[in-house]
Amino acid sequence: MVGEIRDEETAKMAVRASITGHKVYSTIHTKSPREVFLRLEEMGVEPYLIRASLGGIISQRLIRIICNECKRKIGEVNIGSNIVPIFQKTGCKACNRTGFVGRTLISAVHYLDKELKESTKNIYEDENILSNSEMVVVLKKLLISESIDYYDYLQFIEGEDLNEGELQRTINYCRKPS
Length: 178
Ligand SMILES: [Zn+2]
Known about the structure:
Blueprint: H1 8-19, H2 33-42, H3 47-53, E1 56-66, E2 72-79, E3 82-88, E4 100-111, H4 114-119, H5 133-144, H6 150-159, H7 164-175
Bound molecules: zinc ion.
Zinc ion binds next to loops.
């Protein structure tokens, strides 16, 4: 177990342990699984060594669950073919005036098989390699099930580096009076 990899020395030690047959678990704080690859490279690990040592990446983020007792409907948005009611937090006795009742996990698992490892050779040209799209699918499911605040949803999308156009369309929709 390596608590966190954030410098060259730790990165190289973890990679060395991995390629000599040890199972290494660690964390790297990045915005996407793609950046794990790039960050290791920035820390001086040769790409072929990253490919040899990296078995998988699990992305995790937490998001707040909105309180069902007091959430306020603020409009509707299109998610794929669904028209989804969207909500904003308010605050009541049940949620201690916070508007939320705990958090839930948004997670995606990338197993780096031979094919995916091979594709990382084009990681600079192709932004879809090790992207956050799976995380966004989970996020959209939470919005469809009316479990999260719409502004938390937008903030999450913004943090996921999605294309500007898609985000702008969603925000404009949100601003339209319902
Ligand atoms: Zn409440």
